[in-house]
Structure formats: C-alpha cells, structure tokens
C-alpha cells in the first residue's frame, strides 16, 4: 500500500507518500496546538488547587473549592457584572454606531471611500496605546477633553479616575477603537447586497423605513451576526484598554475577568483563584465561539462561492 | 437614494463630519502634542496655535531627557527596536510554518485536518491569560522567561491562526485543475507548490503577513506578562514610560506617535485586504 502511494508521488522531486504529506506540512501547526493545549490543561489543574505563589508549600488539591467560593464571593459577582456590562454596552453601541456609519458611507464615492479608509486608523492603533492617548486627553490638569467638559458645565468631570464615570470612559475608548471594525464589515456587507430588491422597492414607492427593516436588515443579518459575535468574544475578554487606563480601578470598579485574573496572579499571587476565573471566562467564550464559528463558516462559504 | 432632499443632505453632511471629528481628533491631538513643549501643553485653555518643536523627538531618539531636575535616561528606542524585531521575526516564523499548513488544509482533506484548524481558531478566541499565566511558570523553569525566543514562540498564538485561515482561503480560491495540469506535466508536488500555488496566492500571503504584523505589533498582554523592561515592545514600554517619566507629556505623545505610525502606515497601504483579513476571510472587501 505504502509502496503504491509512493510510486504515485511522481517521477521527480521528493518521494513523500501522498498520505503522509499533509501531516508533514501541518505538523508545525499541530505542534503549536499542543503547545497551547499544555498550558491550557495546566490552568485546569491549577484551578482545582489551593495554590499561592507566596505559599508554595501549602499547594494541594482542593477540588472545587475555588469555584464553590465564587458563589459567596462579592468580588466574583462584581467581576461577572462588570464584564457583562462592559461587553454588552460596547457591543450594542458599536453595532448601532457602526451600522449608522456604514449606511452613511454606503454609496461608492471618492469622499466616502476616503473617509472609510481614514476610519481604519483607530482600529489599527494598539488598544493599549489608544487608552494612553485618551488618558492624556482626559488628564484633569491639561487634558483637552477635561477642558471641553468644563466648557459645557461639567467642572469636575473625573473621567476614568472616578468610580461613577470610569466605565463610561473605558467604554468610550473601546467604541473609538472598535466601531470601525463593525463599520468596515457591515460596509462590505452592504455593498455586496444585490441591488434588485432595492430598485423594486424604489419603483413601488415603498417607505424607506420599510426598506430598512424588511429588506436591508434581514439581508445584512449574517454580517451583523458575525461582526457582533466577533466583537462580543473580544470585548468580554477586554484587558488592554482597561489595564492601560485604570488597572482595574478605581477600587474594583473595572475588574473584568482578565484584569481580575491578572491582579490575582501577580498581586495576590493566588494562582488557583486566577486559574478558576480564566476557566469560567473560557467556558463563556467557548460557548460563544461555537455559535460564532458556525455562523462565520456559513458566511465564509458564501464569500468563497462569490469569489 | 435618488430623491434626497436638501435637508437630508445637510444632515448627512453634519453626521459624517461628527464621525470624522470623533475618530480623527485623538490622533490629531496627540500628534500636535508631540510637537509641543510641556509648557504649552499645560497651558489652559489648550492651544491650537503654537511654535512646533522637535525637542520631544530628539529626546527620545538620543535617549537623553534633560529636565530641570537633571538628565534622565529613556530607553524608548530600545522598545521600538523590540517591537520591530519581535513582530518581524514572529510573522516570518508564522509564514514559514503556516503557509505550508494552510496549503495542506486547503488541498487535502485528511483525518484531523479540520480538528487542528479549528483548535487553532478556537484558541484565537480563548482568553490570552488562560494560556499565559501557566506559561510564565513554565518559562521560568525552561529558562525562556524574558527571552526573544520565548516571546516569538508565544506570538505564534497571534500570528499563526490568522495566517493559516486567511491563506487557506486564498489557496482554496485557486482552481485545483491548474495544479493537476502542472503535475501531469511531470512536476513534483513541491515544484507545483512553489511555481503555481505560491505565486497565485501571493497577494493573500502578503496581506495575511501584514495583518499578522499589525496584530503582533499591537499586542500588549503577552509582553506585559512575559517580558521585562529590556525586551518589552512599545505597547508595554509606553505604559511604563508614562509612569517613570511622570509629567513629560510632550515626550509621551511623541513616543505614542512613533509607536502607532508603523501600523497606521501599513494599514493604509494594505487597506484593500483588511476587510477580508479582519473577518478571517468571511467577508470579501
């Protein structure tokens, strides 16, 4: 069998069996997979242990204790609440804003194309650096946004340093960075829609709200779903913007999952709790990514079909 | 679209202006700050007209910051070099590993192929710290902590899935018949890959490489967890800089400008491919 396949491999070049070849080619990718799976499994093990870096001698399995303690831990509920609030607010606002901008730019014109390219710039800015930029602009001493806020009567608007406005500020930065992502995906979607239904609707004099809700939105749904899930997966794991802006503060206002896990690991050196937090976040993202990948594959098939 | 009233056109114009101002203002403002001295930055109300100075950039490039309290060493150029080195090497390694694998996934449906591809994809969406935190402990044992090799290895988590999925799509777009025809002409598998598949997928590979570079450059958490000061890229370095230099806002702005310019320039250059890349091939731009 092997001899036969080797012969078929051709008269010249490498004599690698046709069966083995794809495995040889994908071996490095496979190795990376294993390289990811090992630390992942280690995290699972840690999450079932009492493990503090400061007390390595006391390390032992406590099985579900890390997880069970979450139920009565107000800090955990705060983490869950802030993470969901952050992800929900950013995704909904970015979706609405991104859709609106995409529709403004739908018509192909030099100006519209230029603007849509310009809008890529926030998206290509490193989120951590974007947070720094906004930090400079919201500095209470000289920040231009603090000055503008004072002009409209918000004399002592503290942006990220006040617990009441910290979430608003990081959500604003997230919107600045990621709205263009949704915008360009939906813009590509809008521009790929067939024109006939719209022409027919225009001929019949159908009201534009009807066209939007009954034609545009339904046809755009796969794009909206892909963009939304993409962002949701990213947003619930947000770390860069929040950490660079406030390091989870003030207090524990913004201790979303990854920030809380980071602080648990490096500040309180509680590896067990940190790992358990990450496993819970992973479970959430795994659930979301399964829905996402199905939808994404369908859209991908369609895009390939059109190519 | 045909019957747009004047009022509607005005409203659209106003809306678009607001959008452009909101998304462009921060970049423009930081750019302006980077040409100002601390004195003009701290002036209230903020100035739109000022005498531009290159002092912030010279301070960063020479690595010497002269303040009233004395001279301060800044290692920002080191961060910039780290960013360049880490991103370029990681993408090169990723292309070397990822392009043949993408070809295998596109051309051969073999056992486990989809599993490997999907494992890689699903970990692209998994929380980074889930993998990173145990890795810090492993890296300390393996002697990989704070080494370029360790960082480049971890950066594969960013670059490899991206390259694999984007390039795979481009290979799938090439009709297999072209390759069969070449094979029948007596050419080996490798010759076919090199002479036919690679050139045809060339633009896609370049686009995937550029996008992977941008993502590697913009990454923050990997280096924050795994690198110390001398190996940190700009994203982490700028954050450290803001705390260490205290009130040198002009230099911080200049550092931010230098840090975001490469990715912005690349993005503008490759914008044609961005839509397809960012959606991992699900949406054609």
TrEMBL record, chain A:
Topology within the bilayer: Multi-pass membrane protein
Domain (ABC transmembrane type-1): residue spans on this chain: 80-292
Family: Belongs to the binding-protein-dependent transport system permease family.
Keywords per UniProt: Membrane, Transmembrane, Transmembrane helix, Transport
PANTHER family according to UniProt: GLUCOSE IMPORT SYSTEM PERMEASE PROTEIN GLCT (PTHR43759:SF1), TREHALOSE TRANSPORT SYSTEM PERMEASE PROTEIN SUGA (PTHR43759)
Predominant localisation class: membrane
GO cellular component: plasma membrane
Lineage top rank: taxon: Bacteria
Organism: Mesorhizobium qingshengii
Transmembrane segments: 20-48, 84-105, 117-137, 166-190, 211-233, 275-293
Protein name in the entry: Carbohydrate ABC transporter membrane protein 1, CUT1 family
Intracellular or extracellular location(s): Cell membrane
Gene Ontology BP, a term: transmembrane transport
TrEMBL record, chain B:
Cellular localization per UniProt: Cell membrane
GO cellular component terms attached to this protein's record: plasma membrane
Keyword ATP-binding among record annotations: no
CDD domains to which the protein is assigned, alphabetical: TM_PBP2 (cd06261)
Classification via Pfam families: BPD_transp_1
Bilayer topology annotation: Multi-pass membrane protein
Gene Ontology terms describing biological process: transmembrane transport
All residue ranges annotated as the ABC transmembrane type-1 domain in the record: 80-270
Residues that span the membrane, as ranges: 12-33, 54-77, 83-106, 118-139, 145-167, 204-229, 249-270
Family: Belongs to the binding-protein-dependent transport system permease family.
Protein name from the UniProt record: Carbohydrate ABC transporter membrane protein 2, CUT1 family
